[in-house]
Amino acid sequence: MNMNFYKMTLKKRIQLLYIFLVVLCISVTGISSYLFAARSIERNALELKQGILNKSVQVMDEHLRHIVVSSYSFMLNDTFTQVMRDVRNNNASHYYQNLSLLQTSFTQLKLVEPLIDTTFLTTPIGDFYSTKDVPNRDDGFAKEYGQLVKQQGWNTMWFGSHPSQLFQAKEHVLSLLLKPIVVDNHSLSNVYMVVNMKEEAMRDILVQDLMNNSIELFLLNKNGSQVIRSTSQDVSYLTDPEFSREISRGTGGDFRYTSSQGEDMLINYSALSMNEDWVMVSVQSKSDLLSPLRKIRWLVIGIMGFCIVLALGLSNLLASALLKPLNKLRRLMVEVQSNDLDVRFRSKYDDEVSAVGYRFNRMLDQIQVLFEEVRVTERDKRRFEVKALQAQVDPHFLYNTLNTMFWKSESGEKKDVSEMIVALSLLFRLGLNDGKDMTNVEQEIKHVEQYLQLQQQCYEDLFIYRIEVGDPSCYSVELLKILLQPLVENSILHGFRDKDELGVIVIRINRDEDMLTLEVTDNGCGMDMAEGQIREGVEGRRQGYALGNLHDRLSLYYGDAASVVFESNIDVGTTVTITIPII
């Protein structure tokens, strides 16, 4: 009897049935939870999007306000006032002189507000604009804005995305039309200023805080037309009269909208304070928002099915026998969670739980094998990365050296050529180091000396050098090879490039207990943002590439124990200090 019991399946061991209670409870709980979660998510999403939308509106308003303020500041400068005096006096004789004077103001306006693309000032004595921009034709302003400026009671007008007819550039722009301020207590008629803003830059501002790809953000007129053209494929619903009526009802709010294709959407909108005819609209598909709930729905259905099967065999009589191996397996999993992979499941039962436990054992065996494989792989990867980084040497040095050897050979300087060949051969032999990643300070000094001698041949009378070793015991210290060469290369190529006097490179090597210090100092032209150059080198840019390579190699091999410190002053020089642990 005992043996038969142990061989029984889990289903056969379950006797008492509570299927109705289980199904009822799970059904009510699952459906209620789904409906409640759907309403809560929808409500919270609308509130959250409205808050984000209001912040986006504030950002857009701030940019538009800054454009208006910058434009009026342009009209307050002395150059503009001087030009307006000629306009008031209808004096066109100084037109080209005034055009030239305004160029600085136009340039400053673009610098103050990078969103501005072009600026156009029309007056009775002629049109003024930046000479870097090519005007379209003489009647461009009259054709585009002639009827609009005749309207009464306006000071500024905003225009959405359109190709400007004032200039020959084909890009779409947003435009601001302004009346000039009063100059010398005189109002000016027929003087208007058009400020064109880059549509692409305005679009970047519109979507810069958009973190959810399922949400679309639009800047619209209240009639539904787009102020900034959208990159979305289907936005036909924006011009739906019902949609336009909703977004024109007030300054902000939310509503639910069903498209002509039957898709439910959640809409938030908020009007801009700088131009209340412009409304920022956030659109999100309701199905996308509630897509996680579909998974929950299927999960609830799956749980219901599982519980029905489980309830069919649930037995109070054998509950303790059923839970005993499960609890044992759970305790083992907790131990595994604490990184103890040596535990194993054992049971006298021959049922489903035991089968899971034995599969759990096989899984642990496979995990241990995989961990070992990962450790080996990571060790090899680290070694290969170090080798790859060491192989990333700029061939420009080799090209210059061979080129110098060629010309010296052509000039009959055979002794210099022989010395350079020997130095280059020794340089490569020391650099290869029999394929080893590590060398010692003595070999590293010989390597950099050969490099410096070759560079002195290539750049005659450019620099001198000296090497100072503070403690003779430094010579035997092991370190990662080719550390000094990138530093002296940086001094030669960047430090002495624009310097007329003789360059001096000083290499100092010292040790302090268990730390080795390598210092390279030059009297070159100095650098700005030396840390920035290292960072750019790490990212793969050409500038500072050798130093970036050096930084990567130190990080890969020594980790946080190594450091590179830059000290640089313009026209004084640069000092680079490498500190590494003595292994």
How does the SSE layout of this entry go?
Elements (H helix, E strand, L loop, with lengths): L1 H6 L2 H4 L5 H58 L1 H11 L6 H18 L3 E8 L2 E4 L10 H6 L10 E8 L8 E7 L13 E7 H9 L7 E7 L19 H7 L4 E7 L5 E8 L6 E8 H4 L1 H22 L6 H19 L14 H40 L4 H15 L3 H19 L5 E3 H18 L4 E7 L8 E3 L3 H12 L7 E10 L2 E8 L7 H9 L6 H14 L4 E7 L3 E9 L2
Parallel strand pairs: 11-13
Antiparallel strand pairs: 1-2, 1-5, 3-4, 4-5, 6-9, 7-8, 8-9, 10-12, 13-14, 14-16, 15-16
- Structural class per helix/strand content? alpha+beta
| Tally of strands | 16
Radius of gyration: 38 Å
Largest sheet: 5 strands, antiparallel
Envelope shape: flat
Strand order of the largest sheet: 2-1-5-4-3
Whole-number mean pLDDT: 80
Q: Helix tally?
A: 18
Share of residues in helices? 40-55%
Distance between the termini: 68 Å
Which range does the strand content fall in?
A: 15-25%
Unreliable stretches (pLDDT < 50, length at least 5) are: 530-543
